[in-house]
Design goal:
With about 350 residues, the protein is α+β, with helices and mostly antiparallel strands. It folds into 4 domains: about 60 residues, no CATH class; about 80 residues, no CATH class; about 70 residues, Immunoglobulins (Immunoglobulin-like, Sandwich); about 80 residues, Immunoglobulin-like, CATH 2.60.40. About 15% of the residues lie in helices and about 30% in strands. Strand 11 and strand 12 form a beta hairpin.
Amino acid sequence: MPVADHLWAGIESRIPSSAATSPGSGTSPWAAQALKWVAGAVAVGMAALVTIFVLNTHESADPAHQPVRQETAPAATEVPAAAATVAAPPVSDPAPVTGEQILPTANSASTGTHTTDQAPNHAPGPDRLVTVVPVTGPMPRSQAGTSGASVGPGTPTMPQASPAPVHEWTAAFNPRPVDEGQLRWFFIPVEDRAAAYNWNFGDGSQSDVMAGVHTYQEEGTFEVTLVITTADGTTRTETKSIEVWRPVELHPVNVFTPNGDGKNDTFDPLFRSTGILEAVELIILDPANRVVFNGTSGFVWDGLNPAGDACSDATYRFVLRAMDNRGNPVEKTGLVRLMR
C-alpha cells in the first residue's frame, strides 16, 4: 500500500464521521481529497528527511569525507603538543623567525614551513584538517634559510679572517762546530727568505751564501756578523761571539826504549796532543808507587831516577797536569812501559 494511503487511513480513523468520509462516499468529498493531499505531502517530506539522515550517517563514518575546517590557534610562544609530535627536532643554533608555521606531513617538502593532518600516513588531500600555528620562537637554521625569513640578533656569524701578521725580519743565526779538531764551523740563518746574505766570520773572511761551512786557520775568539737584505731593501744585522778551539786530546806513547840509539829514547806525554797550551807537571811512579820522576820545568822522562840511575824495565804510571788553550786545567793519567 502506498505511504499516502497509510497516512490517510490513520487520519481517517481520527476524524469524526461528520467531518470526513472516505473518498467516493458522497459525504464532503472536497475535505476528504484535501486531507489526502496533505497526507501525501507529509509522506514525501518524511521520506526525504529519512534519506538525508541515512546519507549523512554514512558520510560521517568515512574519514575520507570529512569537511575541511580552517582554524587559527591563539598566538603562543610554543607549538601545541599535538603539532609538536611531528615537528622537526631543534638544532643547537636556531635563527629567530616570526609568522605562521604550518606543521608538515611526512610527504610535505622542506620549504621552511611545517604542515600536519590527522592521518600523517596518507598523502594530504583537499579534505584534510590543517592546523596553522603562529610561530614566535626560533626556527632551525636549515629551515629558516629556505623560508626567506630574516636572521635576527643572536644568530652566530661566520668568523672573520684575521689580517695576516706582519713578518718581523731578523738576522739571527745559529753557529755550530762541525769538526773542532779541524776548526770547522757551520753557520745557518733563521731567515731563509731574505733577498741577500752577507757573512763576516771575524777572521777576515766573508761569504754571501745563505748557509755554509767555514774553516778557521787558528784557534781563538771571533766576532761573526750576518747582514740580511729583504726584497724591499730592509736590512737586519746580528753579531755573535764564538770560541774556536780544538778539543783536548792526549795520545802519549805507551812504550819507550831508552837505550841511546836515538829512536824512541824518551817518554813525552804531550806527543801528538792537541788543545794543550802548556804542561804544568809530570809525575812518574814505579810499580811500588814511588816517585822516580817529578818534572815541573821539563816534561820529558829519559828513564832515569832522581839519582841519575837507569830505572829497570817495568810498567810505570804517569800523571800529567796541564792547561788547555782556553786556560782550563787538564789532568791525564796512564801507563807506560819501559824497555831497554
